[in-house]
């Protein structure tokens, strides 16, 4: 729930940024006074600079959306924190011996690990949930031995 809530929050921030940029473009660039029979001519497609500014605006918004999705892929599915400690596993040249190459990221709070294949055709990222992977490390030692 936290994972998707954070994604929706990022999308809302992106929408607000897009709205502010849209308003800034139209404040800086007021509509033209040209009108034919009371109907103003559309600027998009007729004014080259305005059309280029809207093209850049579109590219910026698409880039922000892509960043949101890319960032979300590498977040913990439980706590929505960034996944850390990438470990490369497998081998391209010894695939049969070590398996296909992939990178495993873990949540530093022990919620799980994300297995991302390096070869896109070999599959999609797989989330493996753990109860608490650090429990073994912080378990009190048996000193009676
Ligand atoms: Zn986590």
Structure, described:
- 42% of the residues lie in helices and 17% in strands.
- The chain is built from four helices and six strands; from the N terminus they run αββαβαβββα.
- It is α+β, with helices and mostly antiparallel strands and 145 residues long.
- Strands 3-4-5-6 form a four-stranded antiparallel sheet, with no helix packed on it. It has a two-stranded antiparallel sheet with strand order 1-2.
- It folds into two domains: 2-73; 84-138, no CATH class.
- It is elongated.
Our count of helices gives 4
Which percent bin holds the helix content? 40-55%
What is the H/E string? HEEHEHEEEH
Strand % is 15-25%
Low-confidence stretches: none
How would you sum up the global shape?
elongated
How far is the first residue's CA from the last residue's CA?
A: 45 Å
User: What do the pLDDT scores average to?
Assistant: 87
Give the cofactors and ligands. Answer: zinc ion
User: Number of DSSP strands?
Assistant: 6
Across the major sheet, the strand order is 3-4-5-6
